[in-house]
Amino acid sequence: MDEKQALDAFTALSQETRLRIVRFLVAAGPEGSAAGEIGQAMDGASSSRMSFHLSHLEQAGLVLSRREGRSIIYSAAYPALSGLVEFLMRDCCQGHPEVCNPAVAALSSCCEPAKGASHA
Amino acid sequence: MDEKQALDAFTALSQETRLRIVRFLVAAGPEGSAAGEIGQAMDGASSSRMSFHLSHLEQAGLVLSRREGRSIIYSAAYPALSGLVEFLMRDCCQGHPEVCNPAVAALSSCCEPAKGASHA
DNA sequence: TCAACATCTCAATAGATATTGAGATAATGG
DNA sequence: CCATTATCTCAATATCTATTGAGATGTTGA
After folding, report:
1. Mean pLDDT, range B94-98, rounded to an integer
2. Does the beta carbon of B66 lie under 8 angstroms from any beta carbon of chain A?
3. Domain total for chain B?
4. Which residues lie near nucleic chain C, judged by CB under 7 A?
5. Which residues of chain A from 27 to 46 reach within 8 Å of chain B, CB to CB?
6. Residue B71's beta-bridge partner residues?
7. What does the DSSP 8-state code read for residue B19?
8. What is the CATH number of the domain that holds A25?
9. Can you point out the beta strands (E) in A43-110?
10. Å from B85 (CA) to C30 (C1')?
11. Which of A3, A107, B6, B95 has the fewest CB atoms within 10 Å, counting from its CB?
C-alpha cells in the first residue's frame, strides 16, 4: 500500500453511497452480493449509479467482482482494507505506543468479542 | 463514530496534502507541530492553503490545535483515528475472523515490532 | 504604539465529481 | 433466434472542492 493507493482508497470511501456499499459488503462476508442486491440495499439506486460507484470501488482495490450467470457478484477486498488500516496507522507508535493501542483493542475485540473488552 | 463523522474523516483523508499532513502529524507524536513547520514539510505550501486544509482536518476531528505564542500548534487526534479504524472494520468478522486478523496483526506489530510478525 | 511575524479569512476562478437518462453489451431459457 | 434479465457505457449537466492572492487578525518585543 503506497500513498497513491491509500489516496484512491480514501477517495473511494469519502462518498456516502460508496462507504455504505463497502460496509454492506464487509458485513456480507467473503461470498459477496450481486450488483442488483446491493442497489436494492442502497435505497434502490439506479443501475448506472451503482455501476459507477462499484467500478470506482473496484478500481480503488476495495472490492472484487466475478460474473455468476447473469449477475455480477461484488465482495469486499479484506486485504486491501487491512492494508489501508496499516498505512494509516503505520507510524502511530513513534515512541508512544499508548496512542494506537486503543485501535488495536477495538479491532481485536471485533474479532474476539468474548475476550473481555466491551466493544465501546 | 457515526456514519457522518466517518464520511467527514474519509473526505478529509482523500486529499493528497491533507493525507500527508495527517501522516506527518501522526509521526510527529502528541506534541504536534506548528502550522508553519507543517507548511514547510508540504513543499512550502502557502499559508492560506495550509490554513484551508488544517481547518478542514480540524473540522473533521482528525487534528487538534492550540495556540502557543505566535504559532498555532496542530497535533494528530489519535482517538479519532482509532475510532475510524474501528468503524471501517466494525463488522469485519461476521463469522469469518480470518478476514480481519491481518489488520489486527499489522496494527499490533506497529506497536510491538519485536513481537514476531515481520511487518508485511 | 509600532514593526515584524504567524496565521486566518474572503472572494474569484479553475478543476474534479456525482447523477441522470438513453442505449449498448452479455447471459439465459424457450 | 428472440425476449427477458442484469449490468455496463456514454454524454450532458449540476454541484462541490482546491488554489490563489490580497488583506485582516492576533502576538510579541522594543
Report:
1. 70
2. no
3. 2
4. A 11, 15-18, 45-49, 52-53, 56, 67, 69-70; B 34-37, 39, 47-48, 50-52, 54-55, 65, 70-72
5. 27-30
6. B68
7. H
8. 1.10.10.10
9. 63-68, 71-76
10. 52
11. B95
B58: in domain: yes
Residue A25 pLDDT more than 70? yes
Instruction: Identify the domain containing residue A106 by its residue range.
Output: 90-115
CA distance A84 to B38: 23
Number of cross-chain residue pairs from A and B with Cβ atoms under 8 Å apart: 149
| Count of positions (residues) in chain A | 120
Grid cell digits, residue B117: 510478525
Classify strands B33-34 and B71-76 as parallel, antiparallel or unpaired: antiparallel
Query: Taken in order B21, B22, B23, B24, is the CA torsion positive or negative?
Result: positive
The model's pTM: 0.90
Burial of B53 (0-12, 13-18, 19+ CB in 10 A): buried
**CB B19 to CB A3 under 8 A?**
yes
Tell which wins on pLDDT, A102 or A72.
Answer: A72
Q: What angle do CA B21, B15, A13 make, to 5 degrees?
A: 115
Are the CB atoms for B53 and B17 separated by under 8 Å? Answer: yes
Domain assignment present for residue B84? The answer is no
For position A111, what pLDDT does the model report? 62
